[in-house]
Amino acid sequence: MFESLSTRVQDVFKSLRGEVRLTPEQVEEALREIRLALLEADVNFKVVKAFVDRVRDRAMDQTVLRSLTPGQQVIKIVRDELLALFGDAEGGLTKSAPVPRVILLLGLQGSGKTTTAAKLGMWLARQGRHPLMVSTDVRRPAAIEQLSVLGDKADVRVFTPDTMDPVARAGGALAEARAKGFDTVLVDTAGRLHIDDDLMTELQAIKDAVQPADLLYVADAMTGQDAIKSAGEFNRRVGVTGVVLTKLDGDARGGAALSVVSVVGVPIAFIGSGERLEDLELFHPDRIVSRMLGMGDMLSLIEKAEQAIDKDEAEQLEEKLRKNEFTLDDFRTQLKTIRRMGPLESVLGMIPGLGGLKQLADNKPDENQMGRVEAIISSMTPAERRNHTIINGSRRKRIAAGSGTSVEEINRLLKQFTEMRRVLQMIGQGGMPGMGGGLKIPKMPQKALGAPSGKRRKKGGPWGLIKTR
Ligand SMILES: Nc1nc2c(ncn2[C@@H]2O[C@H](COP(=O)(O)OP(=O)(O)O)[C@@H](O)[C@H]2O)c(=O)[nH]1
Ligand SMILES: [Mg+2]
After folding, report:
1. Model confidence, pTM
2. 190 with 202: CB under 8 angstroms?
3. Which mutation among 105, 106, 108, 115 tests ligand 1's pocket best, with the greatest number of atoms within 8 A of CB?
4. What is the domain partition of the chain in residue ranges?
């Protein structure tokens, strides 16, 4: 989602970034572009207008226009205001709730309530909770069966009483949870194609009976502005504490997501990004905004890196970088680490400035290439790996033969390695993503905003090094 919006906003930013002086006309031009981009992404027009007005108010300030980095300041304002659209609250469930916590899932038919109930059940179980699910969709027997099937898959217990009264079923599940020690009750509800009074009355009665701490409105992101309209209606009639946006894996333009918080006044709690039960994520507004603005998803990257990188290893590496003792051995370790972080493409997309690189298929370091580099280093003797300067012509021939590569490839690798050492020296104590010691990634957002463009950073960096043509 957000792909075309993201591209357009980034284009505007590119034109602003380099400017040493900004005129009100330039800001106005940029705002016009952003306005169009948002409208095209299906963001509610009232939200767009309010957004553009706020950015204009702040950006036209003389202290911004006359500052040393006006472009950057405007970009920062846009980022702040986008975050404000999302209500900059972290997603998830409401903070406190009586035990057992009751979660009610509301929404139109087909929006993904039943699927989300099972996804949430699994998500909660993974957090060490003990959820119990119940369906109150009695009009469609298949719906009750559907939840049972999903419950089996998710390994989450489903309460199946004989009664076909929705309120009694929900109440029964709560009593069952109290009696058997379940700490969370997920109540799946019936939906309609359109909002109708009967349904609202039924939901209200269930709500009165089980007093849910969370009333999650499940919205199909594909339906765009319609999803928002009915969210508002559910909120007025039953009450909503959070929104779950589903089907964000489809080709939804994503703008509805940007509008729902401002229009309905409730935060996005979770997002659904696929049909599998694992495809549920906590909503992180700052991450989405950063990704949208091409600042990369640094937090996700750090999380991934932390999983892949051993702390001691990282400290040792930092030490070596400081003393300029970075060897081919260390280099090989780094390559392995980068590979452990997942497919290169997804890692690249998360690094500020390299987001754009992803599209240039030609420039993409490929996994094969990394394998060859590893093979070359493995064919070296320990002494050669410790000190690359001893690798003369005859040693190069031997290494090429041993690794099934060519002398040219060895030459290229060594050249890039020395270049990388030089760059790492300059970076000093790290600061380059993907390098173990460099995990002190600049704080968002100011520094990331000023990060060098993809091309500049690529040169000599670990990515540049892997690319050998
Ligand atoms: N691609 C995709 N499909 C989803 C997602 N969530 C639900 N679905 C699908 O949407 C359809 C309707 O879901 P369901 O849970 O039965 O909706 P309900 O009527 O609100 O209970 C099913 O085919 C689900 O597999 C999602 O996040 N991504
Ligand atoms: Mg259902």
Report:
1. 0.64
2. yes
3. 115
4. 3-86, 101-292, 298-466
